[in-house]
Amino acid sequence: MLNLLFIADVIGAPGRDVVRALLPDLRRRYDVSLVVANGENSAGGFGLTHDSATALFAAGVDVLTGGNHLWDRKEGFAYLSQEPRLVRPANLPLETPGRGFAVFPARDGTPVGIVNLLGRVFMKEADCPFRAADQALQGLKDQCRVVLVDIHAETTAEKIALGWYLDGRASAVIGTHTHVQTADECVLPGGTAFLSDAGMTGGFDSVIGMDRHVALRRFLTLLPERFTPATGDLRMNAILLRIDPRSGRAASIQRLQIPWEAGPAGPARLLAGEEPAAAVRGAVRERVRDLRAGGIVPALALVSVGDDPASAIYLKKKSAACAEVGIDARHVTLAAGTDTSTVVDRVRSLGADPAIHGILVQLPLAAPAEAAAVLEAVPPDKDVDGFHPVSAGRLAAGVPGFVPATPRGILELLRYYHVPLAGRHVVVLGRSNIVGRPLANLLSMRGVDMTVTVGHSQSGLDLAELARQADLLVAAIGRAEAVTADWVKPGAVVVDVGIHRVAAGGGKQRLTGDVEAASVSRVASALTPVPGGVGPMTVAMLVANTVRAAERLLARVKV
Predict the structure, then answer these.
(1) Are strands 200-203 and 451-455 parallel, antiparallel or unpaired?
(2) Domain range for residue 513?
(3) pLDDT tens-digit profile of 8-41?
């Protein structure tokens, strides 16, 4: 017999965490040959992206299916059209990227056809799922005997009707979309396993996977509010199918509902930065189009002194991000040895240029140029790095202004992954004007509402003890792997701001952060990776600040 596992709608990062934790054991326990999961809500609760799909494939999923929310993330469009392990609804228009059915080899070599369909009742417009199913089965008939159909539909009647329609022609017809597991599993007379709805995988202390408090406010007020995936009472809903590979007939269908609670000893969830950074860049791209329509081409001046290799890499990444969203990045490079007054004069001339909307001074500056004087020469309304004393004062006073890119990126990263902040205790290790101080101000502001402690080099032996008190620990102390597991409270969220090159043996080097990831990941509940965590968010926030500066100019012009 061929054992197939179908995992119900995966809801955001909590659902992905459940799959990662439970799937390896399920594959072993039930000798599963192929795993299919509905992933249309796996990216923040809506849509599918490269990062969310990659996480599910890495967890052991073989094939992903979709539904009506599959295209909710614009940053995922290019990926969705090219991923061969994704099957989107077959009854969408022919011009829709991707495939509506395909054949995948199970671990024992058995070819298995996967078909995805979208219901029409109370759903978006689509072609007839019954006729689309006929066409898919016709396309698969010479390739495989085992066929699994995911019918993503609103009404039970439509799904049951499709089950009867395909009885004896498909091995299994599994309903998805409502996020509520039904108890009507059966094998129909023709040998087709059927279930009206497989349920969901994610937080069940919720309203169909979403934070119940937000859902209740929407029902009570009818006002729009962003839904976020729930994190309480995590469970996996799944369906285990036993199918005869020779005939394609199902022998049995079994519903699974498996609870999971993250323990402090488990591997930490990785808060990768590329997915949320791509979302930020996508939103910025739309704003740039509006600016260009208004006659303004956003421009960022990138000022550097000397030829520091690390600075060259950072400038290249920032230029690439600007090009992606439509910002004109202009490099202003001064030779090493340029004195402070010359650099200040150059920055002031850029500040007076109405075609330049943002100015970034890439640190460090080669001697003898002094960073403090150069940064103060940047006009506050073009200070997209947020380093000017006026920007720092505005942030401290809670007045609108430019927030440094790294602190702002950290906050947006935490919000993207729905890390609870209000009322929690954050310990920021480091008091620099670039990260530590502005981040402390940002996290304590009204609307974020964290209790903040700042630890630094003069905190002495108490620094590790302070760190152990944190619900959220931010490491920005500039020492490679200084924060180890004994600095972290079990279950805490850890943000690693540092990046260092250290010896890796054999004359090679590796990148690491301020956190010893190997030990901390066994204690923390979540951890930002290095590289690929805070870094992408810093660059994304820089382009967002640049567009904001240009929008301010457009507003003034309109007035």
Answers:
(1) unpaired
(2) 274-553
(3) 999 999 999 999 888 988 888 889 999 999 999 9
Residue 85 lies in a domain: yes
Phi-psi region for residue 378, left (φ > 0), alpha (ψ -120 to 50) or beta? beta
Does residue 297 sit in the same domain as residue 254?
Answer: no
Provide Rg for the chain, Cα atoms: 26
Instruction: Starting at the earlier edge strand, list the strands of the sheet with 425-429.
Output: 269-270, 526-527, 493-496, 472-475, 425-429, 451-455
Q: Is 317 a catalytic residue?
A: no
**What are 12's two structure tokens?**
């955001």
Report phi then psi at 245, rounded to 5. -70, -20
Catalytic pick among 62, 385, 471, 496: 385
pTM (whole model) above 0.70: no
- From the list 318, 383, 471, 496, the catalytic residue is 318
Annotated catalytic, 362?
yes
What span, in angstroms and rounded, lies between the C-alpha atoms of 533 and 277?
Answer: 10
- Residue 288: is it exposed, middle or buried by C-beta count within 10 angstroms (0-12/13-18/19+)? buried
Judge whether 390 lies within some domain.
Answer: yes
Handedness of CA 377, 383, 388, 389 (dihedral sign): positive
From 483, 487, 485, 536, select the one nearest 514 (Cα to Cα): 483
- Whether residue 533 contacts residue 496, with contact meaning beta carbons closer than 8 Å, is answered with yes
Tell the residue number behind the tokens 């992408």, with chain if given.
536
79-113 confidence digits (pLDDT tens): 888 899 999 999 999 889 899 999 999 999 999 99
The answer as to whether 527 is a domain residue is yes
Here the CATH number for the domain that contains residue 457 is: 3.40.50.720
**Maximum distance among all Cα pairs of the chain, rounded to whole angstroms:** 87
Domain count, the chain: 2
* 205: annotated active-site residue: no
Q: Residue 465: inside a domain, yes or no?
A: yes
Residues 211 and 316 in one domain: no
pLDDT digits (tens, 9 = 90+) for 457-502: 888 768 888 999 999 999 999 999 999 988 998 889 999 999 988 8
* pLDDT, position 377: 95
- The count of other CB atoms within 10 Å of the CB of residue 263 is 10
Residue from 362, 471, 496, 514 carrying the catalytic annotation:
362
How many other C-beta atoms can be found within 10 angstroms of the C-beta atom of residue 510? 11
How distant, in Å, are the alpha carbons of 387, 500, 501 from that of 365?
A: 15, 19, 20
Distances, alpha carbon 289 to alpha carbons 293, 296, 470, 501, in Å:
6, 9, 42, 39
> Do both 210 and 324 map to the same domain?
no
